Amino acid sequence: LPPLSSELPKSHCEKDHHIAMVLGGYKVVRQASALFKSILYHHPGPLVFHFITDEQSREVLPTLFATWNLPSVRVHTYDIDAYKSRVDWIPNAHYSAVYGLMKLIIPDILPYDTEEVLLFDTDLIVLGDITPLFDAFNGTPESALFAIGKNLSPFYTQSKDRWPAIGRGYNSGVVYLNLARIRNSMWNEIWRAATEEQLKIFKRLYLADQDFFNTVSFNHPSMFVLLPCVYNFQLGGISQPVNCEQDDRHEKIAHFNSPQKMKLRSNLVVHYAQKVAAYE
């Protein structure tokens, strides 16, 4: 993937950009409010949020955004219970439970006229303009369906209980989806077949949707293009930031990808947690 340009064409300030998240419960919405604010602070143009929600989060999200009175922001919610049966048959040892698995069927949940979407985990904080991400598919072949960042931890190279991956693998905390291409592909058949095959070996998922994306990339590498690591700078307990090999490293998105989240006592987590506090 060519370097993402920092020069923003005028059209970027006029075009709707779509962001999707899966949220469950009042606590998650409260924690994610700093992420929402950081996106809004750094993004120069109109935004459309797509929230896949349970009953609790669906109660509060529209009210939260209404109190901010943002004329260039639209919010759509989708009932997770209508889609759970598509993925809840998959054994999953990850703490995200069924919520992480919903990422696999985002192309079927969002409206058909939404052709591209940026999919975020809720344990992120945006540190700079993310607009260049929305050009991630420019100049890519039709086979490219997902733009995703490298995993900064050695999990897929060292763990015995790991699904297939290419090298260190990918981290799915930030993924840009070309929904139009995915819907014209065999994506549902591909991920389901890969899942059934690997469950015969591993019996369960360990890193939820991330295991899916890595297994599919192992067999279909042309479906994936690489995002710069600064758009998913991971702060998990076994993450190795030195693996972010950008020459001019200015992190745009920090990712608290451990069960402890911002309570993890590392220098980097403490540093970026202060960025979160600025939006609370």
From TrEMBL:
Keywords: Glycoprotein, Golgi apparatus, Membrane, Signal-anchor, Transmembrane, Transmembrane helix
Keyword Isomerase assigned: no
Membrane topology summary: Single-pass type II membrane protein
InterPro entries: Glyco_trans_8 (IPR002495), Nucleotide-diphossugar_trans (IPR029044), Xyl/GlcA_transferase (IPR051292)
Keyword Membrane: yes
Single GO term (MF): xylosyltransferase activity
Organism superkingdom: Eukaryota
Example of a GO cellular component annotation carried by this entry: Golgi membrane
GO biological process: protein O-linked glycosylation via mannose
Location in the cell: Golgi apparatus membrane
PANTHER family according to UniProt: GLYCOSYLTRANSFERASE-LIKE PROTEIN LARGE (PTHR12270:SF25), GLYCOSYLTRANSFERASE-RELATED (PTHR12270)
Protein name, as recorded: Glycosyltransferase
